[in-house]
Design a protein that fits this description.
mainly alpha; 13 helices; single chain; globular
Length: 290
Amino acid sequence: MRPTHILMYITAVLSISSASILVLLSGAVAAACAFWRLLIASIILLPFYLLRRRGTVLSSEGHVVNYLFIVIAGTSLGMHFTLWMDSLFRLPVIVSTTIVVTYPIYAYIFEILIFKVKFRYTDILGMLIAFTGILLYFHEALNIGIVDLLGVIESFIASVLAAIYFFIGRFIRLRTGLLTYVIPTYIVGAAAVVPYSIITNANITNYPVATWIYFALLALIPMIGGHTIMNYLLKFYSSYVVSSIAFLEPIGASLLALLILNQVPKIEHVIATPLVLCGVALVLRSASES
């Protein structure tokens, strides 16, 4: 990996680690955080696209497919944010983020199934270890009641949706420019949140000034400083390699939660979290060697 890409990797890790804290501090519902995070980021990036207008999502062949992929990626992203952010109000930060960052594994599975990437026995071992950790959280929810079952399910679904988003992003980014891809994808993501907010009667507009500041911070730091950088890197690396940036998010997020929100991890979470992260790391290490 190039030195500049390593720096981007680190920047993205630090940026996305702040997302959960900003959501909880905002005082807004998950749908509002997801909607404005995506829409404000699009508005900020749009002038840069207009100044450097090059390329297009359309090509002489397959433009309908490109649009379809952007709709799928954007919808997956919007619902990923909405479900994951809602889980933050049901689960400790360390639990929610640990479950959701397993998406590099799912992205790797997609690449194996579609692009026939070589599969290794260590991949199976890593996935088993990671899912063992996740099952511990489900066990807590079902039998012990330490965590909210709906929150666990939301995080799990959000993880799969993130894998779809990154996998499609890799395909599109090989064919088009960064802003040409991310701006419509972010806009579609924001639009996808609207029906959800209507169905759930979620307030996405009526908030005090302080909350709008957090919306802007969500757009600037984890969205532009995190996801947009990750989408840039998709031009050069596979989806599971880029999405592995999230691997370190639970560490940064849980430290911030401890310092800012006074969320002290329970012993059960301290046991389960390393299992999930070690499993993901084993899969990614195997993938990078293939």
